[in-house]
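If your schedule permits, I should be very grateful for your opinion on a structural question. Please examine both parts with care and let me know of anything in them that strikes you as inconsistent. The record follows directly beneath this note:
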Amino acid sequence: MGSNTKTNKRKKWPFVLIVVVLLAVSAVLIVPRIWTRGFPDPANSMIARTEVTTGDISTTVVGSGNLAQKIEEAKLPYGVTVKTVLAESGDAAQKGDVLAEVSLPSVANCVAEVKDALAGIETDMKNLIANNTETVSVKSKTAARVKKIYAADGQAAADVVAANGALLLLSLDGKMAVAFSSETVLAAGSAVTVTLSDGTEKESSVLTASAGTYVATLSDDGTILGDQVTVKSGEEAV
Protein backbone atom coordinates (compact mmCIF):
# COMPACT_ATOMS: atom_id res chain seq x y z
CA MET A 1 0.00 0.00 0.00
CA GLY A 2 2.87 2.29 0.74
CA SER A 3 4.24 1.73 -2.74
CA ASN A 4 0.93 2.76 -4.33
CA THR A 5 0.93 6.04 -2.48
CA LYS A 6 4.41 6.91 -3.70
CA THR A 7 3.40 6.06 -7.23
CA ASN A 8 0.40 8.42 -7.10
CA LYS A 9 2.57 11.27 -5.85
CA ARG A 10 5.01 10.77 -8.70
CA LYS A 11 2.15 10.90 -11.22
CA LYS A 12 0.81 14.22 -9.79
CA TRP A 13 4.17 16.05 -9.79
CA PRO A 14 4.51 16.52 -13.56
CA PHE A 15 0.96 17.87 -13.74
CA VAL A 16 1.65 20.48 -11.03
CA LEU A 17 4.80 21.58 -12.79
CA ILE A 18 2.91 22.15 -16.04
CA VAL A 19 0.31 24.28 -14.26
CA VAL A 20 3.02 26.42 -12.65
CA VAL A 21 4.69 27.01 -16.04
CA LEU A 22 1.39 28.03 -17.65
CA LEU A 23 0.71 30.54 -14.85
CA ALA A 24 4.15 32.05 -15.25
CA VAL A 25 3.67 32.49 -19.02
CA SER A 26 0.26 34.12 -18.48
CA ALA A 27 1.74 36.53 -15.98
CA VAL A 28 4.42 37.57 -18.46
CA LEU A 29 1.80 38.32 -21.14
CA ILE A 30 -0.95 39.95 -19.04
CA VAL A 31 0.85 42.03 -16.36
CA PRO A 32 2.61 44.45 -18.79
CA ARG A 33 -0.76 45.27 -20.41
CA ILE A 34 -2.35 45.99 -17.03
CA TRP A 35 0.66 48.10 -15.98
CA THR A 36 0.63 50.23 -19.11
CA ARG A 37 -3.11 50.93 -18.77
CA GLY A 38 -2.47 52.76 -15.47
CA PHE A 39 0.07 55.18 -17.04
CA PRO A 40 -0.57 57.24 -20.23
CA ASP A 41 1.74 56.93 -23.15
CA PRO A 42 4.16 59.92 -23.07
CA ALA A 43 3.91 60.13 -26.84
CA ASN A 44 0.12 60.60 -26.70
CA SER A 45 -0.18 62.66 -23.47
CA MET A 46 -1.34 66.36 -23.58
CA ILE A 47 1.84 67.95 -22.23
CA ALA A 48 2.83 71.42 -23.48
CA ARG A 49 6.49 71.86 -24.15
CA THR A 50 8.26 75.19 -24.69
CA GLU A 51 11.72 76.67 -24.70
CA VAL A 52 12.79 79.20 -22.07
CA THR A 53 14.48 82.24 -23.61
CA THR A 54 15.55 85.71 -22.43
CA GLY A 55 13.82 88.92 -23.59
CA ASP A 56 12.57 92.43 -22.69
CA ILE A 57 9.34 93.41 -20.94
CA SER A 58 7.39 95.89 -23.05
CA THR A 59 5.61 98.63 -21.08
CA THR A 60 3.08 101.03 -22.60
CA VAL A 61 2.22 104.23 -20.68
CA VAL A 62 -1.01 106.01 -21.63
CA GLY A 63 -1.69 109.60 -20.52
CA SER A 64 -3.11 112.93 -21.60
CA GLY A 65 -1.76 116.46 -21.78
CA ASN A 66 -1.52 119.65 -23.80
CA LEU A 67 0.99 120.44 -26.49
CA ALA A 68 3.01 123.50 -25.55
CA GLN A 69 5.77 125.48 -27.18
CA LYS A 70 7.72 128.65 -26.68
CA ILE A 71 5.77 131.60 -28.06
CA GLU A 72 7.29 134.82 -29.32
CA GLU A 73 4.79 137.69 -29.17
CA ALA A 74 4.86 140.54 -31.66
CA LYS A 75 3.83 143.64 -29.70
CA LEU A 76 2.52 146.76 -31.42
CA PRO A 77 1.62 150.14 -29.92
CA TYR A 78 -2.04 150.76 -29.13
CA GLY A 79 -3.78 152.32 -32.13
CA VAL A 80 -1.80 150.56 -34.84
CA THR A 81 -4.16 148.85 -37.34
CA VAL A 82 -3.33 145.50 -38.96
CA LYS A 83 -3.82 145.83 -42.75
CA THR A 84 -3.09 142.28 -43.96
CA VAL A 85 -2.23 138.98 -42.24
CA LEU A 86 0.11 136.99 -44.49
CA ALA A 87 0.76 133.90 -42.33
CA GLU A 88 -1.55 131.10 -41.26
CA SER A 89 -1.61 128.95 -38.15
CA GLY A 90 0.92 126.13 -38.45
CA ASP A 91 3.14 127.87 -41.02
CA ALA A 92 6.90 127.62 -40.51
CA ALA A 93 8.45 131.07 -40.20
CA GLN A 94 12.09 131.91 -40.79
CA LYS A 95 13.96 134.92 -39.49
CA GLY A 96 13.03 137.92 -41.62
CA ASP A 97 9.77 136.48 -43.00
CA VAL A 98 6.92 139.00 -43.31
CA LEU A 99 3.97 137.77 -41.22
CA ALA A 100 1.66 140.77 -41.45
CA GLU A 101 1.37 144.29 -42.74
CA VAL A 102 0.12 147.28 -40.74
CA SER A 103 -1.52 150.49 -41.84
CA LEU A 104 1.06 153.24 -42.33
CA PRO A 105 -1.32 156.11 -41.36
CA SER A 106 -2.08 154.38 -38.04
CA VAL A 107 1.66 154.06 -37.34
CA ALA A 108 2.12 157.74 -38.15
CA ASN A 109 -0.64 158.69 -35.71
CA CYS A 110 1.00 156.65 -32.95
CA VAL A 111 4.36 158.28 -33.63
CA ALA A 112 2.74 161.73 -33.45
CA GLU A 113 1.10 160.87 -30.11
CA VAL A 114 4.42 159.70 -28.68
CA LYS A 115 6.11 162.88 -29.87
CA ASP A 116 3.43 165.00 -28.23
CA ALA A 117 3.83 163.10 -24.96
CA LEU A 118 7.60 163.54 -25.06
CA ALA A 119 7.17 167.23 -25.79
CA GLY A 120 4.92 167.61 -22.75
CA ILE A 121 7.45 165.85 -20.52
CA GLU A 122 10.21 168.02 -21.88
CA THR A 123 8.15 171.17 -21.13
CA ASP A 124 7.52 170.03 -17.55
CA MET A 125 11.22 169.39 -17.05
CA LYS A 126 12.09 172.84 -18.37
CA ASN A 127 9.58 174.41 -15.99
CA LEU A 128 11.06 172.55 -13.02
CA ILE A 129 14.53 173.71 -13.95
CA ALA A 130 13.31 177.30 -14.45
CA ASN A 131 11.61 177.31 -11.05
CA ASN A 132 14.76 175.88 -9.49
CA THR A 133 12.77 173.62 -7.17
CA GLU A 134 13.26 169.99 -6.05
CA THR A 135 9.59 169.24 -5.41
CA VAL A 136 6.30 169.37 -7.27
CA SER A 137 3.06 170.02 -5.41
CA VAL A 138 0.04 167.73 -5.76
CA LYS A 139 -3.02 169.96 -5.41
CA SER A 140 -6.69 169.07 -5.00
CA LYS A 141 -8.73 170.38 -7.90
CA THR A 142 -11.98 170.52 -5.92
CA ALA A 143 -13.33 170.70 -2.39
CA ALA A 144 -13.08 167.25 -0.81
CA ARG A 145 -12.28 165.32 2.35
CA VAL A 146 -9.24 163.05 2.57
CA LYS A 147 -10.51 159.50 3.16
CA LYS A 148 -7.22 157.61 3.07
CA ILE A 149 -3.55 158.33 2.42
CA TYR A 150 -1.57 155.53 0.77
CA ALA A 151 1.75 157.32 0.28
CA ALA A 152 4.40 157.82 2.95
CA ASP A 153 7.52 159.98 3.10
CA GLY A 154 10.34 158.56 1.00
CA GLN A 155 8.23 156.13 -1.01
CA ALA A 156 8.42 155.97 -4.80
CA ALA A 157 5.22 157.48 -6.18
CA ALA A 158 5.09 154.94 -9.02
CA ASP A 159 5.17 152.01 -6.53
CA VAL A 160 2.36 153.52 -4.44
CA VAL A 161 0.14 154.11 -7.47
CA ALA A 162 0.85 150.61 -8.81
CA ALA A 163 -0.18 149.03 -5.51
CA ASN A 164 -3.20 151.20 -4.65
CA GLY A 165 -4.23 153.02 -7.79
CA ALA A 166 -3.57 156.47 -6.28
CA LEU A 167 -1.42 158.38 -3.81
CA LEU A 168 -4.44 159.18 -1.64
CA LEU A 169 -8.24 158.82 -1.64
CA LEU A 170 -10.59 161.81 -1.54
CA SER A 171 -14.29 161.98 -0.67
CA LEU A 172 -16.00 164.33 -3.11
CA ASP A 173 -19.64 163.89 -2.02
CA GLY A 174 -19.14 164.24 1.74
CA LYS A 175 -20.46 160.72 2.33
CA MET A 176 -19.18 157.42 3.66
CA ALA A 177 -20.83 154.12 2.73
CA VAL A 178 -21.29 151.07 4.93
CA ALA A 179 -22.34 147.71 3.48
CA PHE A 180 -24.02 145.14 5.73
CA SER A 181 -26.26 142.05 5.64
CA SER A 182 -29.31 141.55 7.84
CA GLU A 183 -32.32 139.29 8.22
CA THR A 184 -34.33 142.38 9.13
CA VAL A 185 -36.24 143.59 6.09
CA LEU A 186 -35.33 147.19 5.28
CA ALA A 187 -36.40 149.35 2.39
CA ALA A 188 -34.37 151.93 0.53
CA GLY A 189 -34.58 155.20 2.48
CA SER A 190 -35.09 153.47 5.88
CA ALA A 191 -33.44 155.34 8.75
CA VAL A 192 -30.64 153.48 10.58
CA THR A 193 -28.08 154.44 13.20
CA VAL A 194 -24.39 153.69 12.60
CA THR A 195 -22.19 153.43 15.71
CA LEU A 196 -18.48 153.97 15.13
CA SER A 197 -15.77 152.00 16.93
CA ASP A 198 -15.25 154.91 19.38
CA GLY A 199 -18.95 154.86 20.36
CA THR A 200 -20.00 157.84 18.27
CA GLU A 201 -23.46 157.43 16.76
CA LYS A 202 -24.28 158.83 13.34
CA GLU A 203 -27.67 158.97 11.69
CA SER A 204 -27.79 157.25 8.33
CA SER A 205 -30.24 155.93 5.75
CA VAL A 206 -30.37 152.87 3.50
CA LEU A 207 -29.28 153.76 -0.01
CA THR A 208 -29.80 150.36 -1.68
CA ALA A 209 -31.49 147.11 -0.57
CA SER A 210 -31.22 143.75 -2.34
CA ALA A 211 -32.00 140.27 -0.92
CA GLY A 212 -30.85 141.02 2.61
CA THR A 213 -27.78 143.02 1.55
CA TYR A 214 -27.83 146.76 2.21
CA VAL A 215 -25.71 149.86 1.69
CA ALA A 216 -26.21 152.87 3.97
CA THR A 217 -24.55 156.28 3.70
CA LEU A 218 -23.53 158.71 6.41
CA SER A 219 -21.50 161.90 6.73
CA ASP A 220 -17.75 161.50 6.22
CA ASP A 221 -17.06 164.10 8.90
CA GLY A 222 -15.32 162.31 11.76
CA THR A 223 -15.47 158.86 10.15
CA ILE A 224 -12.46 156.76 9.23
CA LEU A 225 -12.23 154.56 6.17
CA GLY A 226 -12.16 150.89 7.22
CA ASP A 227 -13.57 151.53 10.72
CA GLN A 228 -15.54 148.68 12.35
CA VAL A 229 -19.12 149.85 12.93
CA THR A 230 -22.49 148.47 14.03
CA VAL A 231 -25.85 149.29 12.46
CA LYS A 232 -29.18 149.57 14.27
CA SER A 233 -32.72 150.06 13.06
CA GLY A 234 -34.49 151.81 15.95
CA GLU A 235 -33.28 149.96 19.04
CA GLU A 236 -32.70 146.67 17.26
CA ALA A 237 -29.26 145.79 15.93
CA VAL A 238 -29.33 144.64 12.37
Observations:
- The chain has a mean pLDDT of 76.
- The longest strand covers residues 201-210.
- The chain has three helices and ten strands.
